[in-house]
Input
Amino acid sequence: CIRDSCKAPYLTDAIIAAGCGDRNLWLWGAGRPARKCARPLEQTWKPASGFIDVDPSKIGGLLHGKPIVSPQQLPAAESSVIVSYVGTRGARDHIRNELIQAGREEGLDFWLAC
Output
């Protein structure tokens, strides 16, 4: 994901400028494409604390020693930033709606990077 390597520094700057630099990074998407695209952000900012996924076979497991949780088990907003690299058709709007319904604010509590 060369495109994501270019985006990562700007996304990191935006997260820090929003006053969220001390929060934990959670990645929405535990599949290989999302992890691959998120790698530049982890290198630019910080390693992920965990992953959020809708796949029942992944939920409850570990990925690189970090937990995989369902959207119903989101980490606390005040201590986390969620970044999504899920590129499946329609997923972006679905993820945005889920996070807004959970009381999260785009550009503060979450970013859709895909």
About this structure: The first helix runs from residue 2 to 17. The radius of gyration is 13 Å. The chain has three helices and six strands. The helical segments are 2-17, 32-44, 91-101.
